[in-house]
Amino acid sequence: MRVEKHPPSPTRGREMIMRARRDVSASVSLFLAAVPLSLGIALACGAPLWAGPVAVAVGGLAAGAFGGASLRASGAATGLIVVTAELVQRHGWRAMCAITVLAGAAQLVLGAVRMARPSLMGRALPAIGPPIVRGLLAATGVTIVLGRLPAVLGSRPNESALGNLAALPADMMRAHLPTLLVGAATVAVLVAWPRLPAPAARWARPAPAAFVALAVATATGLFVDVASVTASPWALTALPALPDEPALGLLGAVVMVVLVASAETPGLSARAFAGQGVANVVSGLLGGLPVAGGAIHPWRHTRPSGEDESTAGDASRDRAPSSAEDGPTRSAQKAAGEAAGEEGSRAATVLYGVWALLCAALFTAAFAWIPAVALAVLITAVGVRMVRFAHLRHARRQGDFAVYAATLGAVVLFGVLQGVIVGISVTALLALRRRWAGFRSRYGQAVADAVDAHRCLPWTPWRQHDCTRPADAEADTAEIGGERQLLGGVSAFQRNTAPLVRDELARLAREGQRPSQLFLTCADSRLVTSMITSSGPGDLFTVRNVGNLMPPPGSDASCDSVAAAVEYAVEVLKVGSITVCGHSGCGAMQALLDLAASPAGHGLPGGGQTPLTRWLRHGRPSLARMQRIGRLGRGEVALAERLVADDVERLALVNVMQQLDHLMAHACVARRVAEGSLQLHGMYFHVGEAQAYVLDRRSRTFTAVRPEVLDAA
Fold first, then answer.
1. Is the distance from CB of 500 to CB of 437 less than 8 angstroms?
2. Buried b (16+ CB within 10 A) or exposed e, 500-514
């Protein structure tokens, strides 16, 4: 039998060419953004300049090939500047390369453990929570700024952050004018380049601001007397070498590198974490800096993966125009996103590493033309961006300010490992204090209540409401309709909960509400929003109705209640995210299916006979969308871990997507989303499983949120 081979279709060939062009464009944009930053990191760490591009090259090649990472700027880690500089100063560069290799091996082991036992890693370091991680990164930013400011002023940095701070007035008095001129030119480009008007931005977009700023600074340095960096060719002689110190000290150094690298790139999958380990092993062997999977994320326009939803609104409100925010990586990410239409492919990630490898191998001699002050400005801007005021405000709101401040101060004063230990200690002390306060509030009258003694733990079975049963003297007058249960619950709140939340509620009464999220969900009594989101007073602005429906604008004046709540949350409260949450067993979805199936209710006519049927007409687009999906047989909404159970569940999932579209039809929402200050999310809660699913809008898939996913920034 003869098999004929058909040549590739012209359409497929054009798609492959377009994809290749997108990959090349995206990889070049990120390369041009990452290399200047990596040079600045190498200079700040006291490493050879070529160590930065080597780390960028390895980050792209190793992480793209082995880590399953999509296009993200893997390379020299900004958060590790302080740790690396300290280790280089103490042990030398060759020993630092050995520590990088050992840290990569540790990441490989941890990645394998996460793949084999996902829940184990979720329980491994429970004490290192978000406040400690955020305090650690903020302290790193403060230390970077204090360490680079003397170089910006033309002076020599001291060995400690406090020494740099004490010497700052004297450095300002004897600032070198040409150095200040080149630094000012660098800052001006970083600030102005992303703000070019539309005609100029069209041709300027492929060049990231960091690259342009470095080029302008280098050109300016040719005409003024400023110090340039010391550049040497890439050398692989006798690298690496173990430091001459006890094993315990070496272990501490490795732990610090792994800890900070993990804090800088939270949320990595086990495979990507292992890929980061491969990159660090190879980078250390080749003489490169430690690698992180999102090394230039402090300047990304999108929210970092580690930033949780609870601070999203604060982050959007805190984003003032600055050279850090609108710096090189934002331009690179914009160019990459607009060229590729998505975060990128593995081929683009590998190409990104190839360009960096060629740079490290062929162009290191050209680095000697770069003024040192230009690289110092780039790194200073990174440090400023790492101190997020949204994290500070969130820590105050959640009662974690002491942990955040203690970690920040201890890291700046004593070092990373000591700062983390201080943060864990403060966390433990606060936890003991809260437990003691709860114990005293709940069991302070244990002797008087010994006859009716039982423990009321949070979210334990309360079907018989033993904890909310009123006294017998009140029972006779509280029997009608559920009033007995209501009064008992309020009484239990006043006795057990009010003393614990009174201070926080008093603060909210003084300062007013500033919720970070609008939560639109169903009125179903089984859906307890504060429970499934672990929220407290002032966190969620909640809108509930039958079927979690969002009427589109202009549908009916009688439905303005939901739109008014959305407008108030978006325009007045300035929330940073809106979540539409559906749930299993939704009576509204079942009613829509029943009305559509019955002869009398077929089509859900607008002239329904009851308020409920009139309200449910806003669910008609969801029903039509589900029917259209079924008829076309494509674009099916799905659950990642299992099949959709039935039509009620399928309609509930489709309804979440449809209501998100309705939200975008409202002008205030569309405007804030376009500005980048508002994000929309979809969620589905399965009541019987007590399991939340989050929507990935690109794949139209709802993925289960697992307990081991940490909320780190």
1. yes
2. eeeeeeeebeeeeeb
Are the C-beta atoms of 441 and 433 separated by less than 8 Å? Answer: no
Find tokens 């589905």 and name the residue.
684
Cα–Cα distance for residue pair 66/56, rounded to 1 Å: 15
Which of 5-14, 342-351, 468-477, 483-492 shows the lowest mean pLDDT across its residues? 468-477
- What pLDDT, in 10s, does the model give residues 383-422? 888 888 888 887 777 778 888 899 888 888 888 778 888 9
Grade residue 334 by pLDDT with cuts at 50, 70 and 90.
very low
- Residue 391 tokens read as 């994290």
Residue-wise DSSP of 366-382: GGGGSBHHHHHHHHHHH
The answer to whether 586 is a known ligand-binding residue is: yes
Helix (H, G, I), strand (E, B) or coil at 93: helix
Evaluate whether 36 touches 211 at the Cβ level (below 8 Å): yes
Mean pLDDT along residues 51-62: 81
Closest CA to 620 of 660, 666, 658: 658
Helices (H), 446-571: 472-475, 483-492, 498-511, 529-532, 560-567
Nearest Cα neighbor of 666 from 567, 579, 582 is 567
For residues 143 and 82, is the Cβ–Cβ distance under 8 A? yes
> Cβ(309)–Cβ(681) under 8 Å?
yes
421: DSSP letter: H
Start-to-end CA distance of the chain, whole Å, equals 61
Q: Residue 298 to residues 78, 266, 379, 451, 699: CA-CA distances in angstroms?
A: 8, 13, 11, 59, 27
Helices 416-443 and 247-264 pack at an angle, to 10 degrees, of 70
More confident of the two residues 500 and 562: 562
CB atoms within 10 A of CB 7: 7
Please report the pLDDT score of residue 75 as a whole number: 54
What does the pLDDT look like over 621-675, one tens digit per residue?
A: 999 888 887 644 455 688 888 888 888 999 999 999 999 999 999 999 999 999 9
Residue recorded with tokens 């590998």: 350
Q: Per the annotation, does 522 bind a ligand?
A: yes
275-307, pLDDT tens digit by residue? 778 888 888 888 888 887 554 433 333 333 334
Interatomic CA distance for residues 76 and 283, integer angstroms:
10
Q: Crossing angle of helices 247-264/270-286, nearest 10°?
A: 130
Alpha-carbon torsion 298, 301, 306, 307, what sign?
positive
Say if residue 58's pLDDT is above 80.
yes
Asked if residue 599 has a cis previous peptide bond (ω within 30° of 0), the answer is: no
554: burial class by Cβ within 10 Å (0-12, 13-18, 19+)? exposed
Q: For strands 577-583 and 540-545, give the pairing.
A: unpaired
The residue assigned the tokens 């050279």 is: 323
Average pLDDT, the chain: 75
The pairing of beta strand 540-545 with beta strand 75-76: unpaired
Phi, psi of 540 (to 5 degrees): -115, 135
Burial class (CB in 10 A: 0-12, 13-18, 19+), 690: exposed
- Tokens 């325009």 belong to residue: 571
The pLDDT tens digits for 607-616 are 457 888 888 8
- Rounded to whole angstroms, how far apart are CA atoms 416 and 143? 11
Q: What is the DSSP letter of 79?
A: G
Residue 583 labeled ligand binder: yes
